[in-house]
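At this stage, I put together a protein sequence along with its fold in token form, as given directly below:
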Amino acid sequence: MKNIEFKIGIIPKTSEIIEVYDSSRINRPIKDSKRIAKMYANSNLIISAWLNGELIGISRAITDFCYACYLSDLAVKKEYQKEGVGKRLIELTEKEIGNETALILLSATTAMQYYPKIGFEKINNGFIIRRTK
């Protein structure tokens, strides 16, 4: 994995986050930078991947660090996908939350094949009330 540096607990510039989201094609409100900034301000586990000062990947989670962790975002710039960056972001998330804490996520349809390959188990006992905006 080249010379990628992973940082825990810092919030990159909103414009850098939007650039990663846009490149990765993750479905997020990238035209609403205030909402993106608020998403990060209200999350408590952020791990980022950097290459030569450029943000190339990010994970954003909400957790109590003892029972449950919701991995809300996992995004890697298109040109760095399939190089293990996303997998490493998840490994670092697991390390931070510890083995008492379940790691939970909702997957985009296009990523449904990815998560089982890196250790996630598909579950069928979830429910959702979808956002309206």
Summary: Residues 114 and 120 are 9 Å apart (CA to CA).
